[in-house]
Design a protein that fits this description.
This protein is about 20% helix and about 30% strand. The protein is of the alpha/beta class. The protein contains 9 helices and 15 strands. It starts with a strand and ends in a 7-residue tail after the last strand. The protein has 2 domains: about 100 residues, Urease, subunit C, domain 1 (Roll), CATH 2.30.40; about 260 residues, TIM Barrel (Alpha-Beta Barrel), CATH 3.20.20.140.
């Protein structure tokens, strides 16, 4: 008789990494998912009847350096929304990354990987803006940190936006340094100061282009002459550049998104860009599944939408098969949701409303085999 710590029974399991979409049971021993045995004794049993059982969600673009940045949210607040892993998108730079790592990455229950901001102080507050200019960069400090924290740092972060980036020399330098160090680049694009062709043409396979559906400034992803998605964007996708919706508040436009997806240009990753000004109460980015419902409403199949917040970010984090899946051997990061029919209003930066007709409500979240959240009316057997 196999002894299990927990069994989740009767739930509708969706696991894009394995192509699984149907009723199935999930077995947990310690902090890992295991094969479901024929005969077992379970210390705890969860009845997930009428609910979806997903891999723990991964929010690939957040700001969680709460101890050192006024723009950030405490990472473990994410657990109650179904998120069990996240990527901090460059809140810390080389001046404060070690403080971020020790104060936030180490003690948090949520798994955290990071991008390192090219500006030494990172994003410390709303009224202190980074300056992306080559003379401001500290390459020796960046090299030292990447070498020391290579298991955590995924790449370098730069914002190619009016007011923070001086010119393309800053991005070229970032790309050269990332190539030297063998790491990725995440480029924030909103209010671009140059045509987007110049930015996206520099990105390599695995690099991240975030805020793909922004529509502020001199350019967006559409060719002005034809109204079609730029050929440079299509070429970048073909060579493996990752397009992150990074919903945010100021960096998303629903009409741009609707037109892009009508042309088949769906996001590779859906993330929240969680900042303290919109934590869980705004109609912009209430939580990750709140954002995902927009893409479901626009016609994205559930398994494809779920992949943008599970298996794809897991691969980009170098944790494929360990998180973002319910496969045996993976960490027991599991999110259980109930979905209800409910009209929900979403807003983007210019106040344009968009209505969805579904709402995903977290019922239980298991993180690394531990019960991290449970709704009051959702009980263990």
């Amino acid at each position: 008789m196999t002894k299990l710590d927990c069994v989740i029974k009767n739930g509708h399991v969706v696991d894009p990494a394995r192509g699984l979409d149907g009723i199935a049971d999930i077995a947990i021993v310690s902090n890992k998912i295991v094969d479901m045995p024929m005969e077992y004794e379970a210390l705890r049993t969860v009845d997930a009847s009428g609910c979806y059982v997903f891999p723990g969600l991964i929010d690939f673009h957040t700001h969680v350096f709460r101890a050192g940045s006024g723009v950030s949210v405490r990472p473990d607040y994410l657990l109650a929304t179904g998120v069990t892993a996240t990527v901090d998108a460059g809140t810390a730079g080389c001046s404060n990354f070690e403080a971020f790592f020790s104060s936030t990455v180490v003690p948090s229950q949520v798994r955290i990987r990071s991008y390192l901001n090219m500006y030494g102080s990172g994003q410390t507050d709303y009224n202190i803006i980074e300056k992306f200019d080559v003379p401001e960069f500290r390459p020796q400090a960046i090299r030292r940190l990447v070498e020391k924290y290579r298991d955590n740092i995924l790449g370098l972060k730069i914002r190619m936006s009016e007011g923070v980036a001086v010119n393309m020399a800053a991005m070229d330098y970032t790309m050269e340094l990332a190539e030297e160090l063998g790491i990725g680049v995440c480029v924030h694009v909103s209010r671009p100061l140059v045509p987007l062709d110049e930015i996206v043409s520099r990105l390599r396979p695995g690099d991240i282009y975030c805020h793909v559906y922004q529509n502020v400034g001199i350019d967006n992803i559409f060719d002005k002459a034809t109204g079609k998605v730029k050929q440079s964007m299509l070429d970048a996708r073909a060579r493996g550049v990752i397009f992150d919706a990074a919903n945010g508040k100021m960096n998303f436009n629903i009409n741009t998104c609707k037109e892009a997806v009508s042309q088949g240009f769906w996001p590779d990753v859906v993330s929240s860009d969680w900042l303290s000004d919109k934590y869980n109460f705004s109609p912009y980015t209430k939580n990750l599944m709140f954002i995902v419902t927009k893409y479901l409403q626009l016609g994205m199949p559930l398994d494809q939408a779920l992949a943008t917040v599970t298996s794809t970010p897991a691969r980009l984090m170098g944790m494929e098969g360990k998180i973002g899946t319910l496969a045996p051997g993976a960490y027991a990061d599991i999110s259980i949701f109930k979905v209800i029919d409910k009209k929900v209003r979403h807003l983007d930066f210019d106040g344009t409303p968009f209505e969805t007709d579904k709402l995903f409500i977290p019922q239980m979240v298991i993180s690394d085999g531990e019960f991290a959240f449970c709704q009051a009316d959702f009980a263990l057997i």
